[in-house]
Amino acid sequence: MTAVIEQPLFSQDPPSLVRLVLLVDDSRLQRRILRASLERWGYAVEECGSAEEALEICRDRPVDLIISDWMMPGMNGPEFCSAFRALPRDSYGYFILLTSKSETGEMVHGLDVGADEFLTKPVNANELRARIASGERILRMEHQLRERNRLLSTTLAELRNLYDAIDRDLVEARKLQQSLVRDRSRRFGGSEVSLLLRPCGHVGGDLVGFFPAGEGQVGLFSVDVSGHGISSAMITARLAGLLSSVSAEQNIALESDAGGAIRVRPPEEIVEHLNRLFHEELETEHYFTILLAVVSLDSGIMRFVQAGHPYPAIQRADGRVEFIGSGGLPVGLLPEATFEQDEVRLGPGDRVLLASDGITECPSSTGDQLGDEGLCALMERNAAMRGESFLEVVMAELIDFAGRPDLPDDISAVLFEFG
Q: What is the edge-to-edge ordering of all strands in the sheet holding 185-188?
């Protein structure tokens, strides 16, 4: 029969963290007795006869455990312990006081100055070893905590460097996104288009723009991609490439006739085309709302599609504000969605504001939203303001309404003023 030898649960004790023990006692005999036991247990030992000499050793060498007598000429044990605790150290030092005192008040004083353990003279070897083992457990926990803090500090530093790199990239991304709106205003004869675009973070999901739409016409668009951040901004960049170019080959809103002349496609066809492209080319959970309009610069007729976007606000020349449109589904929700075209006629002095929901849903300090009524009142108050100056006032009033400059959503708008 083969014998089964049971292995111990642990093959060996964990390595000691006590590299150096310092004995401090004015009695040479007491030091010799304690040193013999400590060296037999495998500890490196340094000894001295006064607390003053011990302090010099502690300043020069990393002492892990101190066994000090209480009563010594000159500086006594508690005074030495207090001075030892005041030394700058990278790690903790365990302090054991040897004493013949047993009064509670004396023990409390020793704890107050930083002692960890007490041993009563004459010292029992087994009790001493138990006290040292307790000290080693404390030092081991302190070492583990220090290592974890070091790893945490290293990880935080790496994360900080990574965050700084991402932050720098996002700053550049913001510049690139802002460059998608190259012209913030442009005149078309007696009419003028002005744009407002302010992301709530580094980059956002809103996009506004315009494009010449053939002879005597201009195209306007206001887009709001669901969500915020980098993925939304990438979709706005894709949409900017599809709608902003004046080239009929690159702008899906334009096409060339047989004679080579550029003409604009009907707004409902443009949005349906965008919806198909979104489902065929982009595998994403995002969707977007859009208000796409084509305005005749001669007649003032504006044909538009409202796909989930807030209602356009028409401000007549006399200051009155009305909201128009028939709603509609956002782009990207249903592959076979269809979109309806609406039409309105602008008269001389009229203007239209295509605003994102960041404006109408802007919350006040009490949580109330600006809403259509608030936007209407804002436009009526500032009916005399024109172009970019009007949009600057809109931004300032939104900040005042919210009570803070960091608004919770992207803010964007297209202002078309018919001359």
A: 185-188, 191-198, 411-417, 351-355, 313-315, 321-323
